[in-house]
Write a structure and sequence with these properties.
6 helices
């Protein structure tokens, strides 16, 4: 105790040169009292005041820096959100443009298909006319050959009759061999032979006239055949152009769908085969448009048309399958992607979180049947929809459920509202896709469908 007192006195003596002892007088009705403030007490008070002021300055600086940093973070977040919304608008515009192009291509395809049908009918009609023309030409040629043979036979008969007549009126000494059938001779003016000569002359003139008419008809038929062949070539060129346009339109329509389905990692052929089996009542395998009645091989145009129709059938199967696979977004308003598929806080996060206001509509992403609609532990209000091909989608943390178990829903049907139920830190939608029970990154399907839907 004495040591502590001596140390205190020594400190007071050293500090008295800078902080002399002070007295604070307190006056009251009962009297006057004073408080003595030693140099050591003053030093402790000044040190405490200095520490308090320093702490206040440092705390204020920290608060200002934190406020400035928070402002920058908010501004950066707002800027990123604006950029993201602008990007979404651009993607939406591109999606609408692709949809318009697809609709225009479908319209052009339907128009070209009708033109193909008309051209097929025209080809069949021209083929019938060509066969009729060939038949007519054969008949004309046969008639012409028969007429020429009859003409030659008539000429031979006339010469034989004239020779016989000359032999009868010739000199018995054998002048019949040197007689000539000149006009004005007794042979020509013989009343018994004259009708025969006139008949044969008329027959020869009629035969010659018929021959000339047949030659004219043959020339006209040949010209008509040339015109028909030329028209057929023009039709073939038009058909080829139409086929090329159809093939280009079908290829343009099929290419994004092929990419979309391949991006899922599923077997495209098995998907289409399953769709084909389920919709077999709408039509069987495609056959060529024109089948020969004489067991002939189909024409190249028929083969091309059959291939185009097969591609159209594939396009139609793609259209049906796209409604049964979750390629679209479950929300149509602007959202913020807060947590993606993968490891989070040491655990596997099996879906995609999309933050938005409470009550934001949630839609079914594909056709299917509701297998669960109610409360489920950490999921909160949960909807589970079973789709074809072993695909299942889950919509969790909802604020409202608008479907019931066993209900069949279609793509785009409103099934609930976004909320904050279950184990959640704020209003958002937890969206999952599972294939045969295995969780798949939902953004794989959503990104695959952006270029189509």
């Amino acid at each position: 105790m004495g040591l502590h007192r001596r140390l205190t006195d020594k400190l007071n003596h050293l500090l008295s040169r800078y902080l002399p002892e002070k007295r604070i007088f307190l006056r009251s009705d009962e009297g006057t009292r004073f408080l003595r403030v030693t140099p050591l007490g003053q030093a402790v008070a000044w040190t405490g005041a200095l520490l308090f002021v320093s702490w206040a300055i440092v705390a204020t600086a920290i608060l200002l820096m934190d406020s400035i940093g928070s402002g920058n973070i908010r501004e950066r977040a707002e800027r990123e959100q604006r950029l993201y919304e602008e990007r979404l608008q651009v993607l939406a515009a591109e999606r609408d443009a692709r949809a318009a192009e697809a609709a225009a291509a479908q319209e052009r395809f339907n128009l070209a298909l009708s033109q193909v049908s008309q051209m097929q009918e025209a080809l069949l009609a021209s083929e019938d006319r060509r066969r009729e023309l060939e038949t007519g030409l054969n008949v004309i040629q046969a008639t012409l050959r028969r007429t020429m043979k009859e003409r030659d036979a008539a000429r031979g008969s006339l010469e034989e009759m004239l020779a016989a007549a000359r032999a009868e009126q010739a000199d018995p000494a054998g002048d019949a061999a040197t007689a000539k059938p000149l006009p004005g001779t007794p042979l020509a003016s013989d009343p018994e032979i004259r009708p025969t000569i006139d008949f044969l002359t008329a027959a020869l003139e009629a035969t010659a006239a018929e021959r000339d008419r047949m030659a004219e008809k043959a020339a006209e038929a040949e010209k008509f055949a040339e015109n028909t062949i030329f028209e057929q070539r023009l039709r073939e060129e038009r058909n080829d152009q139409i086929f090329r346009q159809l093939e280009d339109a079908v290829s343009i329509s099929l290419e994004p769908l092929d990419k979309m389905f391949r991006a899922t990692g599923m077997s495209v052929d098995s998907i289409l085969e399953q769709i084909r089996k389920g919709y077999s009542g709408q039509g069987g395998p495609l056959e060529p448009l024109v089948l020969s009645s004489m067991n002939e091989a189909p024409s190249p145009d028929a083969i091309r048309a059959s291939m185009i129709l097969e591609q159209i059938d594939r396009l139609n199967l793609y259209r049906i399958a796209a409604e049964k696979i979750p390629f679209v977004m479950p929300v149509r308003r602007t959202v913020r992607y807060t947590s993606g598929f993968g490891m989070r806080w040491g655990r596997m996060h099996k879906g995609q979180d999309m933050a938005g206001p409470i009550g934001t509509p949630v839609y079914a992403t594909a056709d299917g049947v509701v297998t669960k609609a109610g409360w489920s532990s950490g999921y909160g209000r949960l909807i589970v929809i079973q789709h074809e091909f072993g695909i299942e989608t889950r919509y969790a943390h909802l604020s409202a459920i608008k479907v019931k178990v066993g209900q069949r829903v279609s793509i785009g049907d409103r099934i609930g509202d976004m909320g904050n139920s279950g184990r959640s830190t704020g209003s958002h939608l937890h969206y999952e896709i599972r294939v045969n029970g295995k969780a798949i990154n939902p953004m794989t399907y959503i990104k695959a469908g952006r270029n189509v839907f």
